[in-house]
Structures are given as C-alpha cells and as structure tokens.
Amino acid sequence: MQATTYFFIFLNLSLVLFEEPAVYPLPFLATSLIEVLCLLVFSVRLMHFAKVTPRNVFWKDTKNICVMVAILMSLTDLAIFGALRIYNVRSVRWSRIVRPIFLINFAESRQIRRAFRSIRNTFPEITYVFLLFMFSVLMFSLMALKLFGERNLQTAEGLPYFTNYLEIVFDLYVLVTTANSPDVMMPAFDFSWWYALFFITYVIINTYIFMSVFLAVVYNNYRKHLKVLYGEVHS
C-alpha cells in the first residue's frame, strides 16, 4: 500500500513534464486520464484510512482535510479546463500547485512532513537576515545610479548603462550569484578602472559576507527545529 501510494504520487507530480506547455507534451486526454486515475487511487487510499481510523480522529486531522480539498480542487480544475478546451478557450491549470499536498499530507510521508515543518519554522528567523541583505542591495543600487546614471555609458549591446533603478537592482541581485560577472562591471571599468572598486566592495559585502551569514542562519535554525521535532517524536 505504501509503495503504491508513493508510485501514484510520483506519477501525479511527473505529469507537469508532459502537460502543456512542455517540451514533449502528451495529448490532453492522456494526461487527464492519468490524473483521474491518480486522484482515484488517492481517494481509495483516503477511504481505506478512514475505515481503520476512528471517525472523530479522522475528521480532526488536518492532513486528511487537505488531501480531500486538493482532490476536489484538482477534479474541478480538470473539468473546467476540459470544458473550455472543447470550445477552444485558452485557460490555465491552476490546480497544479496543489499537487505537492499529496506528497506531504499522506500518512506515509512522515519524514517529509517533518522536514517541511522545519523549513516552515525556519522562515521567520531568516527573514531579518534576508531583509538586511535586500537593504544592502537597494543601497548599493542607489549608489550605482548616482555614480553611473549621468555618465552616458552604454552596455556592449548599445543600451543605456545603469540609468534605471529597478534594472540596477536586478543586475546587482544577479551579481550576488556572480552569474553576470564581470560583464555587468565592464562598461564602468572601461570608463575608469577605479569604478571596479565599487563592484569589488559590493561582491565582498553581499556575496562573501551576507551569503555566508545567510547560509549559517538557515543551517543552524533548520538543524535546531529538526532536533526539536525529533525530540518530540522520541519523547
């Protein structure tokens, strides 16, 4: 029963690789039949669980309610999408985002729920570090606008360089990953090599310091909450 549940959860999650838009899309009828089969298996599994569980315990368990709501939402969305498709009306399968609920909320996924709770409990504690990091990016973006915005510099494609604040924020945010390094710096460096100091300072503060602190906070808090959950289980 556990292996069967995991198989159909995996099959249901894998449908996103073959539903439009996809590189190798399957016909809508094929993917919809597979999804209906998966939802049928989930419903049978839920009914089986309800048979061996006291009624008051079953209906008080939010995991079972979440699974039932996800099944109803998926069936409703599938019916609406199919009806609109008959009349050649384009729509979006919005229920795809609820499919991971089946992976998390079935009784067999105890370890996944434990990890999910640890991630959820970690979020509030890393918010402050993330906000501080974003404040640093915004301030450096403002400095970049003042330094380069009025010098009529151009990128390699001939576009204005660092004249739009939001575009600067995005470019510097990407620079934290070093994905656009050193291309984002080259127009300023060609104008004067002294401007390279601005980008070097930015990378040192945000990539090497803030990212290290961010990683440490995430790791320590996730580990702390995971230990608390394991302690509750074994106590």
Automatic annotation (TrEMBL):
| Name of the encoding gene | Tpcn2_2
The family database entries (InterPro entries) matched by this protein are listed as: Ion_trans_dom (IPR005821)
Q: Which PANTHER family match?
A: TWO PORE CHANNEL 3, TWO-PORE CALCIUM CHANNEL 3
What sequence ranges are listed for the domain Ion transport? Answer: 5-223
Signal sequence coordinates = 1-18
Q: Which controlled-vocabulary keywords does the entry list?
A: Membrane, Signal, Transmembrane, Transmembrane helix
Q: What is its main location?
A: membrane
What protein name does the entry list?
A: TPC2 protein
Species source reads Nothoprocta pentlandii
Q: What GO cellular component term, any one, is given?
A: membrane
* Cellular location(s): Membrane
* Chain segments annotated as transmembrane: 22-44, 65-87, 126-149, 161-181, 193-219
State the membrane topology: Multi-pass membrane protein
Instruction: Write out the GO MF terms.
Output: monoatomic ion channel activity
Tagged with keyword Transmembrane helix: yes
